[in-house]
Amino acid sequence: MMEKIPVSVYVLTTNNRRTIERCLKSLSWAQELVVVDSFSQDGTYDICKEYTDKIFQRTWTGHRDQYQYAADLTTQDWIMFVDADEEIPPELAEEIRMELNGKGKDLDGYFAYRRTYYLGRWIRYGGWYPDGEIRLCRREKGKWEGGLHAKLVVDGKVGVLKNQYHHYTYGNISDQIQTIDQYSKIAAEDLFESGEKFSLFNLLFHPPFRFIKEYLFKSGFRDGLPGFIIIVSTMYYVFIKYAKLWELTRSTAPSPSSEGGTEKCRFLRHTQDTESIEVQSQPLPAGRQAEPSTRSQAEGQVPAFRRGSRRVDDF
C-alpha cells in the first residue's frame, strides 16, 4: 500500500453521484479526506461514507463561504481542494509527494493545471485549455476570496506543478445548459451587487470577442465539433449574464406610476429566487467544532444546483 502523503484534501458535494466515486478513489494517497455535502439526494452522501468518516452536511451558503468552511475542517499542515467532478492521477499525487519532501519546504502553495474531458474527448485548445488554479497550500497561508468565481489566495511563494489533474465536466449538453442558466444568474447578481452598470456594448460585443479570442486565436476549432459547441455555449453564457444584469437593473428602477412600490416588490421576489440557489445558514460560533451530521437533517435543504467545478467561463 502506498504511504500516505501528509496532506488534507477537502471536497464539496451536492448531487454528484455521476463523478464522486472516481474523485474519491483518486484521493487514497491523502492522509486526511474531508467532505462537506450540501444534503445530496442522489446517493452521493452514502458513497462518500465508504471513503471517509470525516463527512459533514451543511446547507449551501455560497462558493467562498463553503470552500473556506471545508478548509477550516482540515488538520494537516498542507491542504488541497479537489472538486467532486475532478480526479488526481497517480503521477500528480507522486509529484506532490516529491515536492513536499523537497523544495516545497520553501514554498507556501502550488498552482496546478487541469485537463477537461467533454463530449467524449479531452479538450486541448480554446478557452478551456490550458486552465488551472492554486489548489495546494499551507493551511495557515491560504484563504478563499471572491464570489461565484472564488479563488484560493496564498500569502507567500507559489510553485507550479507539472502534472495535470483531470476534470470530467458536464454529463451532457442539457446539464451544461442548466448550469449556464444557474451560474449566469449568480454572476449577474455579483455584478449588480458590486455596482457595475449595464452596458449595451458588453452585451453585444463581449460574446463575439470571446469567439475571436478562443475559437480563432486560441485554436478552439481544432477540438472539432465539441470545440464549436464550447464556444457557442460560452458566447451564450456571456450574453445571458449581461442580459440578466440588465433585467436586475430594470427591476430595481422606480416606477413613475407606483413611486417604486411595485418595482420594489419585484426585486424582493427576485431575491427570494436567489435564496433558493444559495441557502443561507449561520457559521459555527468561535471555538465550536463541526460534528458529522445524520441523514435526518437532509430533508428540504438541497441547493438548486449540482456541485461541480465552475466550468462556465466569465469575462
Structure description:
Helix content is 37%, strand content 19%. It has helices spanning 20-25, 44-49, 63-72, 90-101, 173-193, 200-217, 224-251, 261-277; strands spanning 5-13, 30-37, 55-57, 78-81, 86-87, 109-118, 121-122, 131-138, 142-145, 151-154, 158-160, 165-168. The protein folds into two domains: 5-168, Alpha-Beta Complex (Spore Coat Polysaccharide Biosynthesis Protein SpsA, Chain A), CATH 3.90.550; 173-277, no CATH class. By secondary structure, it is α/β, with parallel strands linked by helices. It is built from eight helices and twelve strands. The model is unreliable at 258-304 (pLDDT under 50). The chain starts with a strand and ends in a 38-residue tail after the last helix. The strands form two sheets. Strands 1, 2, 3, 4, 5, 6, 7, 8, 11 and 12 form a ten-stranded mixed beta sheet that branches. Strands 9-10 form a two-stranded antiparallel ribbon.
